[in-house]
Amino acid sequence: MILKLKSDEVSGAVDTYGGELVSFVKNGVEYVWQGNPEYWNGKAPILFPVVCAAKDNVMSHDGVDYPMPKHGIARRNEFEPVYISKDRIKVEQRATEESLKKYPFYYVLTADHSISDKGFSTVFSVKNYDKKEMTFCIGGHPGFNVPMAPEDGEFEDYSIYFENTDGAVVSITKDSYMDDSVPKLDILKGKNKLPLRYSDYDRDALIIENLPVKSVKLVSEKTGHGIKFGFEGFNVLGIWTPMHKKAPFICLEPWNGLPANVSETTDAKSKKYALTLAPGEEYAVGYNVEII
Question: pTM for this one?
Answer without folding.
Answer: 0.97
